Amino acid sequence: MRTADPLHLQLLRLLRDNGPVSRAELADQLQIPRPRLLSELERLVATGFVTEAGMAASRGGRRSTLVELNPNLRFAAVDLGASSVDVEITNGRLEPVAAYTEAADIRQGPKVILHRINELLAKARVEGVHDRLDAIGIGVPGPVSYRDGVPVSPPIMPGWDRFPVRELLTREHGCPAVVDNDVNIMAIGERHGGVAHSVDDFLFVKLGTGVGCGIYLSGEVYRGIDGCAGDIGHIQVDPQGPMCTCGNVGCLEALFSGAALGKEAAVAARAGTSPALAERLTQRSELTARDVAECAMEGDVTCIRLIRDGGRRLGGVLAGLVSFANPSMIVIGGGLAHLGHILLAEIRSVVYRRSLPLATGNLPVVLSELGARAGVTGAAVLASNVAFEQAS
Amino acid sequence: MRTADPLHLQLLRLLRDNGPVSRAELADQLQIPRPRLLSELERLVATGFVTEAGMAASRGGRRSTLVELNPNLRFAAVDLGASSVDVEITNGRLEPVAAYTEAADIRQGPKVILHRINELLAKARVEGVHDRLDAIGIGVPGPVSYRDGVPVSPPIMPGWDRFPVRELLTREHGCPAVVDNDVNIMAIGERHGGVAHSVDDFLFVKLGTGVGCGIYLSGEVYRGIDGCAGDIGHIQVDPQGPMCTCGNVGCLEALFSGAALGKEAAVAARAGTSPALAERLTQRSELTARDVAECAMEGDVTCIRLIRDGGRRLGGVLAGLVSFANPSMIVIGGGLAHLGHILLAEIRSVVYRRSLPLATGNLPVVLSELGARAGVTGAAVLASNVAFEQAS
User: Chain B: nearest CA to A281, how far in angstroms?
Assistant: First the structure.
């Protein structure tokens, strides 16, 4: 693939993030002479990515024409979880124009799942959401070779190993596609439109059924040599701890995750230490992390303790990672982020106590702002990047 | 500072790393037209950094002139430890032309220590090693703001906090200077001329009196937001462990480091569990990690166990970091690297067992090749980089 023109890329991203801008302002912001800007814009108009959008308010001299991304640009953003699929169709500015959420068991394998995604995207076309897609971004719950666009030995995705996800989507929809893991797309989303906006070095911790970490270093996602950087769920926190699904003992994920918390809640309900959980267990067959969160909000001390214990364990791992990576922010996201401020207080307490003072002097530990939309937002960012690169 | 010309930088580094090269070969390697190369070289000759070096062997056509770095270029490389200072003066190709090692207590403060370094550099001039220095690189045993050229809250360097080390050296010697921490310069050295040659993503673990980690990501040293990335010595490995000098309990460094091993050796000697150590303790007042290494080589089982226990603890921390960072190599260096293969075997065993198989499938865990020279080698690389940037 030829190298993208950095100026074109910068221009397209500026229009994506700021909306309609006058030519005069663009020339100012990019610090290039007006004639050069005009010829560059002309080329981008020819690609169909950029259009004129009327006249700007006068700045004193001649009025300047506004330019914007073509309002018909459409990106598909897909966040594939272990048991669900979220799809958003966005315009060029990454604003959602349609959204679909469905249950989907990742273990059904790539053919079934990708077929279902293709059906959703076709449905969106029939509904008039798009004529054609300009790019697709997809996040999957496992390690990915970003370069090759394929999952690599994903533990909870039987049948997906090295399956050509990117190639299949590109062929089916006739547009570029990009594949990343679910945690990275959340980190990318949070940096684009969330609490980590414009932060260059931060950790995004996803607490869901499992636990993972997206890593931003020097303004770029760091994926590691094999694409599996950030796999913090299997860091050992207790050599005497329970067996983990990975075969080792005492992994963080085995002690604190959606799955672990659900199990502990059931144990507490049956042992009679939590009346609130016990009552919920009479109404349904199993408890989840959400039950623990809700009972904690109502003041159930066992639930508060479960969350604090979990926060302490996660905090211990994060304290080590802060000493190692010296980031400027930690963002907590994923389904368990609704454990909220009890969790956050415990994590902060451990991290601030255990890491080097220099590294924590100015280190916010905060909750994700985008919540459940972090993943699709990041997938849309990736889609737009790959579309812009090919247009440049 | 103006931005350095990337082509000039590339050219100077090529001459540094490969020695005399013909103009024809240079044009080939840099993939630029011969006339452009000649005009660029002319500019570099004018700066005094590049000189002609006779004629190359014929490649069939007209014979091409060899060019090389000016043989009179001199870089000073300083590796400042807690209790010693190593200085090398190198030529442009980073080959040592003189070396000095002295005891020096870092706690004497920056004025005394830097004065002593200046004296050593002046002595080298008197001895005819250099007329003047072209750049100085220095590593110090604590966190550094690389951008500002000052130590920042260094725990074992009283009086050095924010002391203008770079500014002072620059003023004293009239040449650019660069300050980094001791572990980073070792990692840089190992990548330049050691086992990590041309490896882009690796961890360099320094096991000395303390424990630290240099981090190479995507071909660059990663220093973190405050310059203290890699501070792995204070990751907690045992909540019931001994008190650490940092005030927390159970830090890696409190359980496995030169200091910790010396203490444990004395305990073993006095408890009678190691006859070899007991005998050594009759001859002097304290034992060091070297005693443990030597007794282990002679087959002392207690010493072998001490090293294996330490390796297991370090391995546990590294397993977590491998899951987090997914590097392509781990290099073990520093004074304790002479614990050698017993240590290495234990680290490997833990890392390979505990980290994600995808991340360890092809992950060498190896000893430093440069040993005690890693630090000065890296300091010389940094010095040459800053000199070349200013010449470009």
Answer: 35
Question: In the structure encoding, which two tokens stand for residue A221, read together?
Answer: 């996602």
Which residue among B222, B231, B356 places its CB closest to the CB of A234? B356
**Residues B326, A359: C-beta atoms closer than 8 Å:** no
Q: Measured between CA atoms, how close is B263 to chain A, in angstroms?
A: 24
Chain B within 8 Å of A156 (Cβ-Cβ)? no
Q: Do A327 and B223 touch (CB under 8 A)?
A: no
Task: Of B271, A351, B164, B343, give the one whose Cα is nearest residue B287.
Answer: B271
**Closest B-chain CA to A152:** B358
What span, in angstroms and rounded, lies between the C-alpha atoms of B385 and A248?
A: 45
Closest CA relative to residue A40, chosen from A55, A54, A50? A50
Largest distance between two CA atoms of chain B: 78
Do B75-190+373-391 and B197-368 come out as alike in CATH topology? yes
The token pair at A16 is: 């994506």
Whether the CB-CB separation of B277 and B295 falls below 8 Å is answered with yes
For the whole model, what pTM was predicted?
0.90
CATH homologous superfamily, domain B197-368: ATPase, nucleotide binding domain (3.30.420.40)
For residues B137, B143, B148, B150, the Cα torsion angle rounded to the nearest 10 degrees is -70
The answer to whether the CB atoms of A201 and B224 lie below 8 A apart is yes
Sign of the Cα torsion B43, B48, B49, B50 reads positive
For A218, how many CA atoms within 13 A lie in the half-sphere containing its CB? 13
- Chain A touched by B145 (CB under 8 Å): no
Q: Do B358 and A153 touch (CB under 8 A)?
A: yes
Per-residue pLDDT of chain A (392 residues; tens, 9 = 90+): 445 788 889 999 999 999 999 988 888 888 888 888 898 899 999 989 999 888 777 666 667 789 999 999 999 999 999 889 999 999 999 999 999 999 999 999 999 999 999 999 999 999 999 999 999 999 999 989 999 999 998 888 999 999 999 999 999 999 999 999 999 999 999 999 999 998 999 999 999 888 999 999 999 999 999 888 999 999 999 999 999 988 899 999 999 999 999 999 999 999 999 999 999 999 989 999 999 999 999 999 999 999 999 999 999 999 999 999 999 999 999 988 888 889 999 999 999 998 877 788 789 999 999 999 999 999 999 999 999 998 87
Task: For chain B, give every domain's residue range.
Answer: 6-69, 75-190+373-391, 197-368
Residues 55-114 on B with a CB inside 8 Å of A are none
Q: Which residues make beta-bridge pairs with B211?
A: B207
- For domain B6-69, say whether CATH 1.10.10.10 is its number: yes
Contact list in B for residue A326 (CB cut-off 8 A) is 223-231
Any CB–CB contact under 8 A between B178 and chain A?
no
**Interior angle at CA A206, CA A205 and CA A208, nearest 5:** 150
**B344-348 long-range Cβ contacts below 8 angstroms, 24+ apart:** B344/B311, B345/B311, B346/B307, B346/B308, B346/B310, B346/B311, B346/B312, B346/B315, B347/B311, B347/B314, B347/B315, B347/B318, B348/B315
Alpha helices for A88-128 (secondary structure H): 110-126
State the complex-level ipTM: 0.88
Interface test mutation site (partner A, options B146, B201, B231, max chain A beta carbons within 10 A): B231
Query: Which CATH number fits the domain B75-190+373-391, given the four candidates 3.30.210.10, 3.40.50.2000, 3.30.420.40, 3.40.50.300?
Result: 3.30.420.40
Q: How many CB pairs under 8 A join A and B?
A: 131
